[in-house]
Amino acid sequence: MKKAYYGNFGGQFLPESAMFALNELENAFFKFSQQKKFKNELKRLLKSYVGRPTPLYFAKNLSRIYGHEIYLKREDLNHTGAHKINNAIAQALLAKKMGKKKIIAETGAGQHGLATATAAALLGLECEIYMGAIDVQRQALNVYKMELLGARVNAVENGLKTLKEATTAAIQTWVNDIERLFYVVGSVVGPYPYPMMVAHFQSVIGAECKIALKKLNKKPDYILAAVGGGSNAAGIFNAFIKDESVKLIGIEAGGLGIATPYHAATLSKGKTGIIHGMKTKVLQDDLGNILPVHSISAGLDYPGVGPMHAHLFESKRVRYEAISDDECMKALKLLCKKEGIIPAIESAHALAFLEKLCPTLKKKSVIVVNLSGRGDKDIQTIREYKKGTIYG
Ligand SMILES: *Cc1c(COP(=O)(O)O)cnc(C)c1O
Asked: Which stretches are annotated as coiled coil (predicted)?
C-alpha cells in the first residue's frame, strides 16, 4: 500500500497541475521537520508563544459526578483559543523555510483562519483567508480579528456558502498560483501529504498527555475527542494508538439526530467517496452529490473526515459516536457550572459522551477528554440556543 494511504483511504485526487506542488511540499516537510534547527524553532514558538505544554487537568467535580477519574487536556488554553495554532504555526514556519511569501487558508467558524492569520503576522507572511459568505456573517468577530491581524478575508458566495465551498475556493486559488502560494490546511484532510503532516504537527497533544499521565502514575482507559476533520483527535490519539488497551473514541456532530438529515456524522452515516483531494467517508446522496451538513458547532460542520479516521473506523481501532446538539449543550453547561470552564461547542461534544459512557463502565476508569478549544467564540450561539435562531 502506498504511504499516501491509510488502508483504503487517502491519496491525491487533485488535477495533474497540483502534483508538482504536492511533491514539493512532501519533500520540504521531510527535509525541514527532521532538521534540528526547524524543530528547535517550532518548539520555542510552541512554548513561549502558544503556551505549551498545556495542562492535563484533573476535573475533580466532574469526576465526582460521573464516578470515574476524568482528566481534561487543556488545548483551550493555547494562544488563539484552540489546538489549531499548533498546526498553523508549524505550516507557516514550513512555508517560510520554503521561501513562500504568501499563505492562504480556508476557514469555517474562523478558528483556523484566526490561527493562520496569527502565524502570518508573527512570521511576516502575507495572508489571505477563504470563508463562506454565511460564515463571514455568522462569525463577524473572528473576521474582524483576522483583518486586525493583517489578513485579507474573502467571502465565498458559491453553494451553501460555508466551509465546503471555502475549501474548494482555497484549493482552486492554490492550484492556479501554486509556485507562489503555500496552502495551510486546517485539519487532517485534503490530499497527501496534508493529513500526515497535520497529524504530525498535532501529535504534540498526545505526547504531552502521555508524559503528564506517566508523572501521575496513571494509565488511561479511555480517550475522547471531538471529530470534525479529525485533527485534535488525531493529535491526542497518536501517542496511544499502538496500545490496544487504551480505548479511543471519536465524537461526531449528531446535530438534530442522525435519523434526520440535519447532522454532520460522516463516519456514522457516510459512504466512501472523494472530496477535497482525498478518498474518505463522505456524506453524499445516491448519485454522489455531497449533502448539506448541520451542526450547532461550526467547527464540526463538514461533510468529509480525515482519511485516517475512515481507516480507524473501518479497522475498528477507534469507535465513533454521534452526539446531538441538545446533548452537547447540556454537557457544555455542566462544565461551566461545575468546573468554571466554558468549552468550545466542538469540545462539548466529546464531554457529552461521558454521560453515555460512564454508566456502562464496570470498573473505575481513567478517562481523558481532549478539550480542543474554549467557548469565547461561541458565546453568541450559546445565548441564542433554543431561541430558534441558530437554524435560521
Ligand atoms: C476546528 C475545531 C475542531 C474540529 O476540527 P478537528 O480537525 O476535528 O480537530 C474541534 N474543536 C475546536 C475547538 C475547533 O476549533
From this structure: none
